[in-house]
Amino acid sequence: MKKILVCMGIYTTLVFILCTGVSFFQSVPVLLEGAAAGYRFLRGTEYFLSLLPVIFISGITFACSIQWQKGTADSAVRFSHGMTVRFKNILIVSLFIVFILMLNTEIFIPSVKAQIVQKENAPVELEESLATSKIMLQKGRPLLALQYAQKACDIAPDDIYANRQLHLAQNSADLARDRELHEQSRVKPQQVSEKAKVSAAGIFNEKGYSVKELIEKSKTAAASGDWFNAHYWAQIAVQCCEGTETNRTEAISAANDAWNKLNEPKAFGSEKERAYYEKKYEGYKLLLSRDFLKSYYIFLSLESSSQTIEADPDVEEFLSLAKKGVESMYFFFDETDGMIRMENTHNIYFALSNSDGTKTVFYIKGAMDVKGNGGSVRYLESLDVVNYGRNGVFRYAFHAPYAKVIEQNAADFSANARTLMGLAKEWKSVPFVQLCSVSRTGEGIITSPEFTFKETGIPDKIVSELGFSKAGNDAGTETNIKSEFIPFTSMILPMPYSDFAVISEASSGAQQMPLYFLAGFVKKAVHYGFSAEVFSEILVTRAMYPLFMLIICIMCAVAGWNYRISDKSALFKFSWLIIIPLYGFLMFIILNSCYYLFGMLNYLIVGIFGMGALAAATVFYTILFALASLNFLSRKN
């Protein structure tokens, strides 16, 4: 067995050197500066890995013919003890080879191909990113221009044009933010209604305090003169009260008393203290009225302000609440920093049938997965969504440069809401897609999707908002309208979150999907616009590949025995240098013919047995393996 492995090792090394050498002498496509050498090496590696099955199969045949050129006297009859020992040895070697080939097929080749494609696409993506950044600047959308310029710099960090565009986009974004803040400063702060004082939503009782406990916390804060917290805890108590709750009157009274105290004239030691209090008060009012974004920026500025000598616990607490509110509606720009380097799936596409009979088609250019304490999060680059009516007529489409997908607990929705959204009872979590993003540190700009409507598909409310004429709502109208009107900033997808992750793999092709994902996805493929038959055939082919290659190895060992070297004194002959490559080429043709027959046979099995094809194929190839093993054991000298 040792001799077999040594022969195969030498043969494999020589082929790797040859493949790499061939690649280095071939021309390369248009690449980024300095990427040619790495590309040539990867291409040579791909050549080698694609030939690895042929290398191993031809190698095992030739190694067996050398190994068994002498010492075969113990196999004078069929099913001899000597052949049993040889079968055990060849089975161990074959299992090792099959294991390497499985890794090669499932991991090595896809990984190398992905790196090659990334290098080939880099120049085009760089050009597209720079062009899009310039267009966004011209359209007056500097934040998007900045994001695309950052993407260009991620692709080519040393590119002069990318860095220049990043500098221009950064300056434009800063100017736009300053302009927006200046405009906001001229607008009079919005007053909070009396209703908002008592029943404003957006206050969270995450720790699950009872109403009585909340009222007690309000009283404790009031006793110490902390009127912000006194109102805050009383407000939560009001929110938690049912319509007939006996403590509701007391909670409302405590909230009103605290609110009145907050509005009483106060004496301040300095103008800075007055300005600080007024800003804090304004941020708190915005928090009550659910304007989380403005409230977040106010408390953020107060937290980092030099106006206070020591940290203000009120500001820290309200900033945390405002941030949670913001994160329920938006995601931050910096969450997608460096996404181009960390994207693990590309070109994702699928379709969903909605509960109202419409169909939505999705295309995602790239995705990045992040695991956090809050569960799984996925960031999307260049999300395109198209919605069609029951009769297949286009209704609307939108493009979002970036989006964030959160794993949303399905139990958070009422039974009514689940029915309306088409969420099945058994789904534990669903994808919640956020389409708008904001800056974590600087107020002023929100990045949102761009919608395209067809007049025939626009609801009356949107028609009114956009000022379209009713005459346009005609079946023959083909006019598409691009608009900055945003009918929604987030969406719930009617599918299990676990399927959303698997679809990303399915879009790259069933051949590229991890096998354990593929096995579970076959039954669901048709629901997302994929062919169940194609996925079933590929599942059978990939699952049976180890057994198929094991059969091939055993049959090659049979060939090695039948054509073992007759000259028992010859350890090496120069004629082998010609014979081995020729035999390798012959095995290349034979193995590819076997692959073709293997695929056709699997199609037949899928066609006959349907969803039971995998079990049927397992039985069939196990029988073939048993026959191949008997064939080997029946060899004699």
Automatic annotation (TrEMBL):
<feature type="transmembrane region" description="Helical">
    <location>
        <begin position="543"/>
        <end position="563"/>
    </location>
</feature>
<feature type="transmembrane region" description="Helical">
    <location>
        <begin position="47"/>
        <end position="68"/>
    </location>
</feature>
<keyword id="KW-0472">Membrane</keyword>
<protein>
    <submittedName>
        <fullName>Uncharacterized protein</fullName>
    </submittedName>
</protein>
<keyword id="KW-1133">Transmembrane helix</keyword>
<feature type="transmembrane region" description="Helical">
    <location>
        <begin position="575"/>
        <end position="598"/>
    </location>
</feature>
<feature type="transmembrane region" description="Helical">
    <location>
        <begin position="5"/>
        <end position="27"/>
    </location>
</feature>
<feature type="transmembrane region" description="Helical">
    <location>
        <begin position="604"/>
        <end position="633"/>
    </location>
</feature>
<feature type="transmembrane region" description="Helical">
    <location>
        <begin position="89"/>
        <end position="109"/>
    </location>
</feature>
<keyword id="KW-0812">Transmembrane</keyword>
